[in-house]
């Protein structure tokens, strides 16, 4: 039914639970899984004239975010491989995670985005997380919104 499914994660517990639900859904459909992690863009300290020595350089920041992204995407990759699914991953730097998710979904010809109802922004929001809401409003392909049940919750 769906040949390629994009599964975003922000590394939070709820996002990971939804991502693993997404891999299970992909396995039921024998779909290719594309994991994505979107990191915020590097921010220069605009309040001072020089960059303090303790402030990371842009290259250091990007390298750190890629390492973090690899860790966040690792459980998705392992679950996809265990299910015998084709897997690839993407990293993006953007101050609009929703725009980046939609852009990658379109560029990779995904037929579905499977994402959690809430991520790092938390369960305190009443209806949907802000990134999920924005993806729904921007996207022209189907978006399956998962509300995972967390262990011990």
TrEMBL record:
InterPro entries with a match to the protein in the record: Rossmann-like_a/b/a_fold (IPR014729), Universal_stress_UspA (IPR006015), UspA (IPR006016)
Record-annotated UspA domain positions: 1-145
Origin: domain of life: Bacteria
Family as reported in the entry's similarity comment: Belongs to the universal stress protein A family.
Protein's UniProt name: Universal stress protein
Organism: Oxalobacter vibrioformis
Taxonomic classification: Bacteria, Pseudomonadati, Pseudomonadota, Betaproteobacteria, Burkholderiales
